[in-house]
C-alpha cells in the first residue's frame, strides 16, 4: 500500500493536480476571508450611519443572544418608569378604560374584562407577529410573552409594525416591548429571546411566572421555519393548548383572499401545504385554526422559485441577520400582507378569548371521508391476504393511521384518482400485487398478531369502481400492470409512489 502511494505521488500529473487543488483551496480561503471582512465593514458603516445620539445599537452574539443591555434614552426612561407604575397598579384605571373604551363597548363589559385579564404567547415577532402583538396590546391584553431569537434588520422595516432605523440590530422582542409600553404601559411583557424547539417548548409555552401561574389563553404561531412550526403545533395539539397558526404571506398580494379556516382545508400556499402534510403524517388532520391565502399564482406575480442568478445575488443584502448564513436570500413579500395576516390572527384571538361570535365561512369536513378510506384499505388488505396466504386473516391489522390516509388522498394525490382524475368516491389500494405474502404473523395462540405489509409507498388513489377493477384484474387474475394500464398512467403512478416513500422517514 505504501509503495502504491509512493508511486502515485511521484507521477507528474498527480503532482500538478495536487498543486491545483491546494492553490484553489488557498484562493477560496482568501476570497471567503476578504468577503467576511468586507461584510463586517459594511455592517459597521451602515450601523454608524444610523443616527443614535441617545441610544447605542445593541449588538447580539452569533446565537442571537444579547451581549449587553441597551442604553436607555430620556424618552425610554420615562416610558419605562410609567410602565413600572402602571404594572404595579399605580395608574388611573379610568384612563385605561377611556383608552380602551371602544373595545369595551364592542365586546361588552364582561368580554372586555376577560380580555383584560388574558395571557397570550406570540412565537415569532417579525412582520406577522409584530402586528399581532401591537393589536393585542392596543386592545387590552394584559400579559404578552414574546418569543423570537432574531433581531431587527433593515429588510424587516418594510413589514414590521413598530421597528425604526434606530432599532436595527436590537432583538425583535426588546424592540416590541420598547415601543409598545409607550402605547399601553400597563401591559406586562415576558421576553424570551431564544429559538423554540422540543427541548424548551414546555418552559416557553408554560404558565406565566407569578404566584397564580396563569396558563396561556392563546398561543400564536407566527413562525416561518417549517420544522419549528410543525413542532409548536404538534406540542399544542398534544397538550390541548389553544393555538392559531399564520401561514405564508410571501408572494401574496390580494387581501380579499385571506381566510381563517382549519389546517386540513388550507390551500394554495407552500408553507401551509408543507405544514399540513407534516401534521397529517403525525396524525393531526384537523382542529388547528390557521390564517392563509388561497390566492393563486399567475403571470406577472411574484414567485419563490425559480430564481435567476441576479436574484440569488441579492441575498447579500441580508448582512444584518442574527446568525451568519441564516437567510440565503430575500423573499418577495409585499409589506402590507404580513400586517393583514397578523391583524387577522389578533382578531381571531380577541374574539375567541372573549367568546364573541365568529361564524366564519364553513369549510368542508373530511374526517368521515378519511375514516371511510381507511376502512376500505383494511378490507382490501384482508382480501389480498386471503389471496396471497390462503389462511385465516381474522384480526389482521394495517400499519396506517387516519393521518396517513389524509396525507395520501389529499396531499399526494390532491383529492383525485391517479387513473382518471375523478375527485369523487375515492379509495386507496395497493398498486402492485406482492410477490410473496402480504401479511406477517408474530406469536401464536392467544398472543398471535397479524399485520399487513402495506406501506405508504404501496398505495394509490382511485375511485371505488377503478379499485374494484384493479383488484379483480391485478390481484385475482394476476395480470401485469402494463396489460391493464397505459404507459402514461404507469409512469404517473411510479412518480407518486416514489414521492410517497420519501415521507416514510417523517411519519
Structure overview:
There is one protein chain. By secondary structure, this protein is α/β, with parallel strands linked by helices. It folds into two domains: 49-354, NAD(P)-binding Rossmann-like Domain (Rossmann fold), CATH 3.40.50.720; 367-506, no CATH class. It is 44% helix and 10% strand. The chain contains 17 helices and eleven strands. The strands form three sheets. The protein has a seven-stranded mixed β-sheet with strand order 3-2-1-4-5-7-6, with helices on both faces. A two-stranded antiparallel sheet has the order 8-11. Strand 2 (143-147), helix 7 and strand 3 form a beta-alpha-beta unit. Helix 6 (127-139) crosses helix 12 (336-354) and helix 9 packs across helix 10 (270-281). The longest helix is centred in the N-terminal third of the chain and has 38 residues, at 12-49.
How many beta strands in the DSSP annotation? 11
Helix-strand makeup class: alpha/beta
CATH architecture assignment name of the largest domain: 3-Layer(aba) Sandwich
In CATH, the homologous superfamily of the largest domain goes by the name NAD(P)-binding Rossmann-like Domain
The low-pLDDT segments are 50-67, 315-329
Domain module count: 2
* End-to-end Cα distance: 46 Å
Please give the count of helices: 17
- What is the molecular shape? elongated
- Gyration radius from CA atoms, angstroms: 29 Å
* CATH first level of the largest domain: Alpha Beta
Describe the strand arrangement of the main beta sheet, using strand numbers: 3-2-1-4-5-7-6
Amino acid at each position: 500500500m505504501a509503495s502504491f502511494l509512493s508511486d502515485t505521488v511521484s507521477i507528474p500529473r498527480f503532482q500538478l493536480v495536487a498543486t491545483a487543488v491546494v492553490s484553489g483551496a488557498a484562493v477560496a480561503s482568501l476570497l471567503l476571508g476578504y468577503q467576511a471582512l468586507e461584510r463586517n465593514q459594511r455592517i459597521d458603516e451602515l450601523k454608524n450611519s444610523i443616527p443614535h445620539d441617545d441610544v447605542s445599537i445593541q449588538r447580539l452574539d452569533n446565537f442571537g443572544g444579547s451581549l449587553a443591555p441597551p442604553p436607555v434614552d430620556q424618552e425610554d426612561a420615562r416610558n419605562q418608569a410609567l410602565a413600572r407604575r402602571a404594572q404595579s397598579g399605580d395608574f388611573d384605571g379610568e384612563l385605561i378604560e377611556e383608552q380602551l373604551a371602544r373595545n369595551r363597548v364592542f365586546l361588552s363589559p364582561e368580554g372586555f374584562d376577560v380580555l383584560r385579564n388574558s395571557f397570550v404567547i406570540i412565537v415569532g415577532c417579525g412582520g406577522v407577529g409584530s402586528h399581532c402583538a401591537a393589536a393585542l396590546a392596543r386592545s387590552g391584553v394584559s400579559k404578552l410573552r414574546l418569543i423570537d431569537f432574531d433581531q431587527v434588520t433593515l429588510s424587516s422595516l418594510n413589514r414590521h409594525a413598530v421597528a425604526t432605523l434606530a432599532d436595527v440590530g436590537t432583538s425583535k422582542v426588546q424592540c416590541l416591548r420598547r415601543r409598545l409600553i409607550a402605547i399601553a404601559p400597563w401591559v406586562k411583557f415576558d421576553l424570551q429571546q431564544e429559538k423554540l424547539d422540543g427541548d424548551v417548548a414546555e418552559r416557553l409555552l408554560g404558565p406565566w411566572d407569578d404566584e397564580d401561574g396563569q396558563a396561556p389563553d392563546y398561543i400564536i404561531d407566527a413562525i416561518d421555519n417549517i420544522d419549528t412550526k410543525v413542532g409548536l403545533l404538534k406540542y399544542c395539539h398534544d397538550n390541548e393548548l389553544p393555538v392559531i397558526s399564520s401561514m405564508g404571506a410571501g408572494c401574496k398580494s390580494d387581501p380579499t383572499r385571506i381566510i381563517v379556516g382549519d389546517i386540513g382545508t388550507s390551500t394554495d400556499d407552500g408553507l401551509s401545504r408543507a405544514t399540513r402534510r407534516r401534521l397529517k403524517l403525525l396524525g393531526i388532520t384537523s382542529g388547528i385554526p390557521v390564517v392563509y391565502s388561497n390566492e393563486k399564482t399567475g403571470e406577472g406575480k411574484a414567485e419563490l422559485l425559480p430564481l435567476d442568478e441576479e436574484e440569488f445575488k441579492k441575498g447579500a443584502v441580508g448582512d444584518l441577520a442574527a446568525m451568519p448564513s441564516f437567510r440565503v436570500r430575500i423573499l418577495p413579500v409585499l409589506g402590507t400582507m404580513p400586517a393583514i395576516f397578523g391583524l387577522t390572527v389578533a382578531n381571531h384571538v380577541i374574539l375567541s378569548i372573549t367568546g364573541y361570535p365568529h361564524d366564519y365561512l364553513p369549510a368542508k369536513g373530511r374526517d368521515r371521508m378519511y375514516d371511510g378510506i381507511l376502512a376500505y384499505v383494511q378490507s382490501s388488505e384482508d382480501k389480498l391476504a386471503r389471496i396471497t396466504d390462503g389462511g385465516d386473516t381474522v384480526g389482521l391489522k394495517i400499519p396506517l393511521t387516519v393521518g396517513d390516509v389524509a396525507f395520501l388522498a389529499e396531499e399526494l394525490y390532491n383529492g383525485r384518482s391517479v387513473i382518471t382524475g375523478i375527485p369523487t368516491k375515492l379509495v386507496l389500494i395497493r398498486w402492485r400485487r406482492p410477490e410473496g405474502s402480504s401479511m406477517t404473523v408474530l406469536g401464536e395462540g392467544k398472543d398471535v398478531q397479524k399485520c399487513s405489509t402495506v406501506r405508504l409507498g404501496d398505495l394509490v388513489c382511485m375511485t371505488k369502481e377503478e379499485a374494484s377493477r384493479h383488484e379483480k384484474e391485478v390481484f385475482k387474475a394476476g395480470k401485469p400492470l402494463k396489460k391493464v394500464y397505459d404507459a402514461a398512467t404507469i409512469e404517473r403512478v411510479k412518480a407518486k409512489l416514489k414521492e410517497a416513500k420519501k415521507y416514510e422517514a417523517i411519519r
